[in-house]
Amino acid sequence: MDAWADTTYQVKLRELVESYHHQHWELSLKAHDKITPDELAAGPVILVGQPELNQWLVEFESQLPIETGNGILGLGEDQFDSNLHALSLSYFPNPMNTRMPLGIVTSGNEALIWDLINSRINTLSRGDWGYEVLEGSSRVLLGNLSQQKETRWTIDTSQQIRLPSKVVNQWNLKPFVFRSFHSKLNQESMDYLSLECEKQLRSILEFIGHTQLSDTINYTVYPSTEIKGLMTGNTDQSHMDVYNNEIHTAFDACYTDRYFGKESQLIIRKLLGESAYPVLEQGLGLYFSSSWQNQGYNYWATYLARNNVPVTVEALLDSREAEYMSALYRQAFSGSLVEFLIEFWGRKQFLEQYSDWSPSKDELEML
Question: Are 138 and 227 in contact (CB under 8 A)?
Fold first, then answer.
């Protein structure tokens, strides 16, 4: 790690590394000027920081397939502004010991370095791609290094994917700021998306008893789940980024009327904070999304129950067990559970219990 000027990011990174746990390996963090060549050669290493401030990035640059000087991030013939982009190199032979892997996360912008590490902490050293360049939180270039004998570990343009970097439409409807990489998204679809989000916001504000949402929500639209997955690293049809106040959604004919819920979930997180159980936040988001999966959560929960799909309240509240549950089952039943709790407790008690509910054994049996 380099000597970042803003120590806020150093503190965040240290906290992230200290809280990271994996059954097969552990992470440690050292300042670039405190690590020795022998330590660099002893095991896998990821160099993190701004190009000019990390002495090892400077020392190794001539041996790497990337350029990092003069405000530029370069890969072959491609050059990117290092203040607007971040670059991740997943795997390269360590110049100090070629039997060990070297990874790199760099940018001229400290915030972009932090965002990339925070979102990819589990895959930095074993990414699906050899390298990637991100503009903000979106990938604009990704690829693999050549493994041919004559060109090994160089940029291989035949294994590159270029992704949309130009926003073709942008519009605002406070507190939402929409931008679209979907060149065929017509005005009718844009209006529908805006009005649906606005409708959900009004319903949530009324339910919670607030008059407005002070945060801005940045909403990005993609032409397909494939493009969305390549650009964001997330292949879900829709997902939220709480840290950056972002929603990312694939919007096409297949998904019209199916995805609403993540918008509500992010609004709820900003207004109420984290819930006692993730299922409550997810379920409350769907509670305001009557068009989820075309028919709404009640339709699917009833359908699954009639077909004897065994899902218990205990399983829904157990985060580990719920993680391995079918997304359709988990989401449909989370919506039904929240609806039941609102009807059983009433709106006021539900909101009071939302962040610290701890059901007793008798209460679970009753549910």
Answer: no
* In contact, 270 and 261? CB cutoff 8 Å: no
- Which has the closest alpha carbon to 9: 136, 135, 117, 134? 117
With 0-12 / 13-18 / 19 or more C-beta atoms within 10 angstroms meaning exposed / middle / buried, residue 315 is middle
Cβ neighbours of 197 (radius 10 Å)? 21
**Rounded to whole angstroms, how far apart are CA atoms 196 and 174?**
13
pLDDT for res 205? 96
Question: Residue 273: what pLDDT?
Answer: 94
Q: Which residues pair with 73 in a beta bridge?
A: 80
CA angle 98, 68, 243 (to 5 degrees): 100
pTM over 0.90, yes/no: no
Contact 130, 91 (CB under 8 A): yes
- The side-by-side arrangement of strands in the sheet containing 72-75 is 66-67, 72-75, 78-81
Distance CA 237, CA 327 (A): 12
Sequence length of the chain is: 367
pLDDT for 320: 79
Residues 6+ apart with CB under 8 A from 287: 264, 297, 335, 338, 339, 342
Do residues 131 and 90 lie in contact, with contact meaning Cβ atoms separated by under 8 Å?
A: yes
- Closest Cα to residue 105, out of 143, 42, 26, 50? 50
Name residues of the chain where pLDDT drops below 50: none
| CB atoms inside a 10 Å sphere around CB 184 | 9
pLDDT at position 124, please?
59
Q: Tell me what pLDDT residue 77 has.
A: 87
Identify any residues that bridge with 246 across adjacent strands, giving them in sequence order: 218, 241
